[in-house]
Specification:
The complex is a heterotrimer of chains A (about 375), B (about 280) and C (about 725). With about 375 residues, chain A is α+β, with helices and mostly antiparallel strands. Chain A has 2 domains: about 10-110 and about 185-260, P-loop containing nucleotide triphosphate hydrolases (Rossmann fold); about 270-385, Nucleic acid-binding proteins (OB fold (Dihydrolipoamide Acetyltransferase, E2P)). Chain A is built from 9 helices and 23 strands. Chain A has helices spanning about 10-15, 75-85, 125-135, 140-155, 170-180, 200-215, 230-235, 250-255, 260-265, and strands at about 20, 35, 40-45, 50-60, 65-70, 90-95, 100, 110-115, 190, 220-225, 235-240, 245-250, 275-280, 285, 290-295, 300-305, 310-315, 320-330, 330-340, 340-350, 360-365, 370-375, 380. The longest helix of chain A is centred in the middle third of the chain and has 18 residues, at about 200-215. Chain B starts with a helix and ends with a helix. Chain C is of the alpha/beta class and about 725 residues long. Chain C has 4 domains: about 20-125 and about 275-335, Periplasmic binding protein-like II (D-Maltodextrin-Binding Protein, domain 2); about 130-270 and about 350-385, D-Maltodextrin-Binding Protein, domain 2; about 390-490 and about 685-720, no CATH class; about 495-685, Orthogonal Bundle (MetI-like fold), CATH 1.10.3720.10. In chain C, the strands form 4 sheets. In chain C, strands 1, 2, 3, 4, 7, 12, 13 and 14 form an 8-stranded mixed β-sheet that branches. A 4-stranded mixed β-sheet of chain C has the order 9-10-8-11. Mean pLDDT of chain C is about 85; it is low at about 1-15. The chains are: A alpha+beta (about 375), B mainly alpha (about 280), C alpha/beta (about 725). Chains in contact: A-B, A-C, B-C.
Chain lengths: ~375, ~280, ~725
């Protein structure tokens, strides 16, 4: 990963020695980079009788941009709040550079957080919003001014310092919320779906700014989102959660190419990976209405995964079905089929005429089949080229 | 959408009539206060025929036998008692309402119910036990006792109002402050309270009015004319055998004036403060 | 050692002597100056410091009865003798027997101070009623009622209008001379019980009703009206007391004469004689000095001061030897008047006469009851008010019931408890939360909850002159079965409850609809002068409500109130507001509506502003009319915002004591009383039946509690 320390990033987090120590990964067949910057050990948290986080172990390396994704209610936000200290754990530890943060209140943890709603103080001007955290820490006024000015410049807020949050646009508010964390120079930045309230164009722009910021500051950031595009574009590593359990953690492409289970496989990538039940029959996998050449030694009942991008509407192929819907993206697009084995999405290019109601055939583009155990909990085989 | 001239004119007519109705009785008090007679003024015309400031002069300049400027001292008493009531009442209400809005603790729901329930017991019948309790606390004949009673009697309403308002303040703001390094107290003082300003204004006004207008308790508990609050002085003009209406009216205006001034000063908060609390209340 | 203790003893006694005596009174004006001057003389003479306190009359009696038993009261206080027996039974006064020299005072004034063979206090001055003549209109004093009627005939002139006579005829104190003049006895000679249904009583009522019917006497006369009429020359004669002399303009020539003799019976119209006495507290720590001060106030120089500047009628005989007094036409006139007066009985029985008599008197004057039937009416009310003391109830079953109830409650809570969880997990913030609430909780507990529980427990007792006896549920059963009177009578709980519910419903409906209507008009941001209107419309809220009540009371006056003025200006008949239930009720409602609509207006304004404008635009597009928009958008969206305020408004209106008490005062005949004012009357105007009043309060509490529970259930959880 790239760590570009700018003069402003006098980050204590960076200067700390990285200690390497192995912890068993919860799931996944891949190996994690075992470095510690932040380490979560066996975190458990429930609200009443409802467990939200069911024992999570996770290491975050210094300078890393870790994105936690998952459907709503998967525990990612709770985990972020646990790291921030806003929630108390039922069990487990939060360690930062070996120091146990668990008993510490948020203000002694040296972490900053950007909230989904930005949580700007409506009664304070932009400047006061930025300076608030420093004033509470009794930083000398001169330094407060300098740091606020610096952050404002970095975020292009300098001309807005005297405005109240009410008088700002969505993007500007977002930047103030980030500035509020930046001026404090914490060891760890936390983001809770910070872009979800912006429109698409702004979101793309802010994504770029966030990436730039991370490069510029080089600090450890943990980012929660349910948007896989954000996860894929921003993260140095992505952690996928479902139902309070960490499913897989790794660099974005690794997760995409080598998902640890069907949940991760379907969660990342759009349209979602096609999954079919199949059974090994000699050299082939046979499912309802289709048969595919098999590779590897996997036998018995399996879940068979095929990314839509790896399938193409063609004159001939192992899958056939009726086109139910078509998404044209220009020169190519996706066709959504109803097949005997279940719904299926596949790419097509402009040269092939595809219309709703048409019977078409679909073929895989080479060695593209992912195999999962029948219950979907474990990946058994990934295509050779992506291993 | 454009409204017809007629509709606008009609709206104004209705509003003017409403204003006349709301001002007429007050003008009448003004008239009694300004007319030379000491009697009830009983006529349709709400404007005085003859204007004199004697009643005001007599009320404002009243001295007792020891040469103490009674009005001045009673004004001071009223200001001190009402001010302290507002302060004590507000600080008690604000902390309690905040806890009720934010923290979970045993007895919380029961506490909220109790607050509402206390509004239902007629206050006039509490005088006898109250006196005994205050005596045990050695708070008879002291402003402190008055302040305590007033601030607690206005508490239930204040707590309900404020709790409703606090409920509307997003928790994320507080969490942001926590992340910024604020202690629980700083979160409350620097973030929550400034945001609750409309509700605080309404609550303060309510506490102030409770203390400013009350006279039975004040007359019963205080044993020195120079330490009575103004409404007691006002009540002294209503005698067993005769009532000095001119003085009473002048005094009534003097007593009402600060409350009115406060109302107008805090008007812009009234609407927001009352409703936000009420919506969630 | 010994020297030290002697020193300490000296200092202690010294400190005791230095403690000033406290003297409380309700005097104003010249009377206050007189008492201040007298006290100053006393201090100059004896060196004993005296602290004076003038208490508003309305609060005086409750202040005395609360303060003295707690050793927080005065050493000496000045009060009329009528309450003597009650003070005696509450043990707040000390006897003056043996000290007081009977021969120094007018005999009747000393008689008035006797309770069960002991004398209490020292008579200072007397108050009684005389006839005030405007000498320009009535040069000669009428000696008989026949003369009087002629003079009234002559001086009454409806065109001016001028009345022959003005006095507060609805007040029994002023009617009493007629009762005695027509030969009626107020108390049975043998049993001492009050009697109302007598021929003399009927005649006296018929006589006064005749005065009013023939236009000699204005209707619904208040003290204020009497004064303005007499000063403006629009009343030729007035029945009033010495206090009235201070109210007469210098320009008016007048004379004071005794009331005339009733031609029919040959008896004079004999007014009550009230004696103001300096009473010594039973709990004073300096009984010697207190007695000395009280005695000093009743004699010699203090008497002279009471004559001038006090303008009081002295009780001391020697005063009438003073040339100053002999030359004073007013004071000397009153001495003659006093000679005919009957000391108001200081018996407890007397205290029970006022309310029934007031009821009868007003009923007759307002033409609702025939004079002959009025005695019966009074008699019935008398019996209803004077509940027999319920038998003592055994305490044990109640104690057991209480324990069982508490245990049952605890068990119920226990069965409803949540899933077993560690306390710390269930309430992670318990310590913090409790710390934040505790200051308020302690305050509320000590100053609200304890008095509240105390109040509730009083409901199980009967109170009689400071003595409480446990009677179990008797108070409740008496109230709920409306024992002693029909359910349809104003005294019945059920009748009052119905009135209270109607009162609450009508008021809150008016508050909300007027407030909402004005809010809708004021909502339009393009409206000019919007801010001004809003400010002016809030004014009624800012005026203290007792001032509001007194203002409106005056405006509803029969002859001179602005409302009737407006009605006559519009060519309508003036209304006698407080003589009928419907109009008296309406007067209360109008006053309270004036008082209450601004609150609802402000709440509605806020609620309206919270409704998104695009909903109206959407409705507009859908073709909804303004009315439909109001019904289908405004009202439903307003409901959650308004409901809590409406509930609170109902609770407040339900217990809106001031307006009822000060505007209609329950007239006619207690019919417009609501539960709270009824409870107040039982507690403070009907022989301090605290237990009975507390039972009322408890019932009020349960009615409201049930009602809020019901509304909450009906309106669903979003309202809670």
């Amino acid at each position: 990963m790239t760590v570009l320390a700018t003069p402003s990033a006098v980050n204590r987090g960076l200067e700390r020695r990285v200690r390497r120590k192995g912890t068993p990964a919860e799931t996944g067949s891949c190996t994690l980079p075992r470095v510690s910057g932040l380490r979560l050990v066996g975190i458990k948290k429930s609200y009443g009788d409802n467990p939200v986080v069911k024992g999570v172990d996770l290491d975050v390396a210094p300078g890393e941009f870790l994105v936690m994704v998952g459907p709503s209610g998967c525990g990612k936000t709770t985990l972020l709040r646990v790291i921030a200290g806003l929630e108390q754990v039922d069990a487990g530890q939060v360690l930062m550079d070996g120091q146990d943060l668990t008993p510490l209140p948020p203000r002694d943890r040296d972490v900053g957080m950007v909230f989904q709603s930005y949580a700007l103080y409506p009664h304070m001007s932009v400047k006061q919003n930025l300076a608030f955290g420093l004033e509470l820490r009794q930083v000398p006024p001169a330094e407060i001014d300098a740091r606020v000015a610096e952050a404002a410049k970095m975020l292009e807020l300098s001309h807005l310092l005297d405005r109240k949050p009410k008088a700002l646009s969505g993007g500007q508010r977002q930047r103030v919320a980030m500035g509020r964390v930046i001026v404090r120079r914490p060891r760890l930045f936390l983001f809770d779906e910070p872009l979800s309230n912006l429109d698409t164009a702004l979101r793309v722009q802010m994504r770029g700014e966030l990436a730039r910021l991370h490069r510029q500051l080089g600090v450890t950031m943990i980012y929660v989102t349910h948007d896989q595009v954000e996860a894929m574009t921003l993260a140095t590593r992505v952690a996928v959660f479902n139902k309070g359990v960490l499913q897989q953690v790794g660099p974005p492409l690794e997760l995409y190419h080598r998902p640890a289970n069907t949940f991760v496989a379907t969660f990342l990538g759009s349209p979602s990976m096609n999954l079919f039940e199949a059974r090994r029959d000699g050299s082939r996998f046979v499912g309802q209405g289709f048969a595919l050449e098999a590779r590897g030694e996997v036998t018995g009942e399996v879940k068979l995964g095929l990314r839509p991008q790896d399938l193409s509407v063609a004159a001939d192929g192992p899958f056939s079905g009726e086109v139910e819907a078509v998404e044209r993206l220009g020169f190519d697009g996706y066709a959504f089929l109803k097949t005997a084995a279940g719904p299926l999405a596949a790419r097509f290019d402009g040269s092939v005429p595809v219309d709703v109601g048409q019977q078409v055939k679909v073929k895989p583009l080479g060695d593209v089949v992912h195999l999962f155990s029948a219950d979907g909990a474990k990946a058994l085989w990934h295509p050779e080229a992506r291993r | 959408m454009k409204r017809s001239q007629l509709t606008v004119a009609l709206v104004h007519v209705v509003l003017v009539l409403a204003c006349v109705a709301s001002l007429y009785p007050v003008l009448w008090v003004v008239k009694m206060a300004l007319s030379p007679a000491q009697s009830l003024s009983l006529s349709l015309n709400p404007f005085p025929q003859e204007v004199t400031f004697d009643h005001f002069r007599e009320v404002l300049l009243s001295h007792d036998s020891q040469g103490r400027w009674l009005f001045g001292r009673q004004l001071l008493a009223s200001v001190v008692v009402s001010g302290a009531t507002t302060l004590v009442g507000l600080s008690l209400a604000v902390t309690a309402a905040y806890a009720l809005s934010r923290f979970r603790f045993p007895g919380k729901d029961a506490g909220m119910q109790t607050l509402l329930v206390t509004q239902m017991f007629p206050a006039t019948l509490m005088l006898v036990p109250l006196f005994a309790i205050l005596q045990r606390l050695s708070l008879l004949d002291s402003w402190g006792g008055l302040v305590l009673v007033y601030s607690t009697t206005s508490l239930p309403f204040c707590v309900w109002m404020l709790k409703g308002y606090f409920d509307t303040i997003p928790r994320e703001l507080e969490e942001a402050a926590v992340m910024d390094g604020a202690s629980a107290w700083q979160v409350f003082w620097k973030v929550v309270l400034p945001l609750a300003r409309p509700a605080l204004a309404v609550t303060a006004l309510f506490s102030f009015m409770t203390a400013w207008n009350e006279f039975i308790l004040s007359a019963t508990l205080i044993n020195d004319a120079a330490r009575f609050t103004l409404p007691v002085a006002l009540q002294q003009y209503v005698g067993e055998w005769k009532t000095e209406w001119g003085h009473f009216a002048a005094g009534a205006l003097v007593v009402s004036a600060p409350v009115m001034a406060l109302f107008f000063a805090l008007q812009k908060y009234l609407v927001g403060g009352l409703t936000a609390g009420a919506v969630k209340g | 050692m010994t020297r030290l203790s002697v020193l300490a003893l000296l200092m202690a006694t010294d400190g005791l002597a230095a403690e000033p005596l406290k003297l409380w009174h309700a005097y104003r004006g010249g009377e206050e100056q007189a008492i201040e001057a007298a006290v100053k003389r006393y201090t100059d003479k004896t060196g004993v410091q005296v602290e004076l306190l003038s208490v508003p009359y309305d609060a005086f009696s409750s202040k005395l009865t609360s303060a003295i038993p707690h050793d927080a009261g005065p050493d000496v206080f000045i009060f009329a003798h009528e309450r003597l027996r009650q003070f005696h039974r509450l043990k707040v006064i000390a006897p003056s027997t043996g000290r007081l020299d009977r021969s120094k005072y007018i005999k009747s004034t000393v008689d008035a101070l006797e309770v069960d063979g002991e004398l209490y206090g020292y008579p200072l001055s007397l108050k009684t009623l005389a006839l005030f003549l405007n000498t320009e209109l009535v040069p000669d004093a009428p000696t008989t009622t026949d003369d009087w009627l002629k003079a009234l005939e002559r001086t009454t002139d409806p065109s001016k209008p001028r009345f022959g006579l003005a006095y507060a005829a609805g007040d029994f104190y002023l009617h009493a001379p007629f009762v005695f003049g027509f030969g009626a006895k107020l108390f049975d000679d043998t049993t001492g019980r009050a009697t109302f249904d007598t021929p003399g009583m009927a005649k006296s009522l018929a006589f006064v009703k005749g005065l009013q019917d023939r236009g000699f006497l204005p209707q619904e006369v208040s003290g204020a009206l009497v004064k303005s009429l007499f000063n403006e020359g629009r009343a030729a004669m007035v029945i009033s007391g010495p206090w009235f002399t201070g109210e007469i303009d210098q320009a008016v020539k007048y004379r004071i004469v005794p009331l005339p003799t009733v031609t029919e019976t040959g008896l004079p119209l004999m007014p009550f004689l009230g004696v103001e006495a300096a009473l010594v507290s039973a709990r004073t720590r300096q009984p010697e000095q207190a007695q000395a001060l009280a005695e000093f106030l009743s004699l010699g120089e203090a008497t002279a001061l009471r004559v001038n500047p006090g303008r009081q009628i002295p009780a001391e005989l020697a005063a009438y030897e003073l040339t100053e007094v002999q030359q004073d036409p007013v004071i000397s006139a009153f001495k003659d008047v006093a000679a005919r007066a009957v000391p108001t009985p200081n018996t407890l029985e007397m205290a029970k006469v006022w309310e029934p008599m007031k009821l009868a008197l007003r009923g007759v004057l307002q033409g609702e009851v025939a004079p002959e039937a009025a005695g019966q009416l009074a008699e019935r009310r008398y019996r209803a008010l004077n509940r027999d003391r319920p038998p003592d109830a055994p305490k044990l079953p109640y104690a057991i019931a209480l324990v069982v109830a508490l245990a049952g409650f605890a068990f119920w809570r226990w069965t409803k408890r949540g899933p077993a969880q560690a306390f710390a997990r269930r309430y992670p913030e318990a310590a913090r939360g409790l710390a934040w609430v505790s200051p308020a909780a302690v305050g509320i507990f000590v100053l609200i909850v304890i008095p509240f529980v105390w109040g509730i427990s009083l409901a199980f007792f009967h109170h009689d002159a400071g003595e409480y006896s446990f009677v179990g549920l008797a108070n409740f059963t008496d109230i709920l079965t409306s024992k002693g009177y029909r359910v349809t009578e104003p005294l019945s709980f059920w009748f009052t409850l119905a009135v209270t519910i109607a009162w609450t419903f009508v008021n809150v409906t008016l508050h909300v609809s007027i407030g909402l209507a004005l809010a809708i008009l004021l909502k339009d941001p393009l409206l000019k002068l919007r801010g001004v209107y809003r400010v002016l419309l809030i004014v009624p809220w800012a005026v203290p409500n007792y001032i509001t009540a007194l203002m409106w009371k005056g405006m509803f006056h029969r002859q001179f109130g602005a409302i009737n003025g407006l009605l006559s200006a519009l060519g309508l008949e003036p209304v006698s507001w407080f003589t009928q239930f419907s109009t008296a009720f309406a007067a209360n409602v109008i006053t309270n509506t004036w008082l209450g609509f601004p609150f609802m207006m402000v709440v509605s304004l806020g609620a309206l502003q919270s409704i998104p404008q695009d909903l109206y635009e959407a409705a507009e597009v859908d073709g909804a009319s303004k009315w439909t928009q109001f019904r289908r958008i405004t009202l439903p969206l307003l409901k959650p915002a308004l409901l809590p305020s409406v509930i609170l408004g109902c609770v407040w209106t339900f217990n809106m004591f001031n307006i009822i008490y000060l505007v209609s005062g329950g007239e006619p005949g207690g019919a417009t009383d609501i539960l709270v004012s009824e409870a107040y009357r039982w507690a403070f105007q009907r022989n301090e039946q605290y237990g009975f009043a507390a039972a009322y309060a408890v019932l009020i509490f349960f009615v409201l509690l049930g009602w809020t529970r019901l509304t909450r259930r009906l309106t669903g959880p979003e309202a809670a």
